[in-house]
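Structure ticket #2291
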Amino acid sequence: MSAVTHNEYSIPLLQGWTDATQVIIVGPVEKNFRPNVVVSVDRDPNAKTAAEYAAVQLPLLKRNLDHFVLIAEGPATIGTMEGFLRQQTVEANGQNLGQLQFYIVRGAKAYTFTFTHEVSRFTAARKMVEQII
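Resolution: structure written out below.
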């Protein structure tokens, strides 16, 4: 039996269960909101390219996020990573939020880097998130 380990904790993976580890970092509180970056990993994605993976994710985002509005999307390079970048706005807990999602596919894994911040502060923080990614 394999296990998922994070810091000092280890959780056994039962038969049929999958590691869905997400890395999350949060910034300082700004007007009752903490900007954050979530990195999620999809093991064994059907898509072979970042654009294909992003296309598969789009209907899920539209269905699961309140007031989803696609702003822009397309191929992008951040640092040395080539992938697919999507910018969108959503609403959560009555707040209008901006998001950047950067998708990359490496071998049998697809990675999604999601940065979320208040819409009013989103543009000013964009360069910071590109440094984080």
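Closing remark: The longest strand covers residues 81-92.
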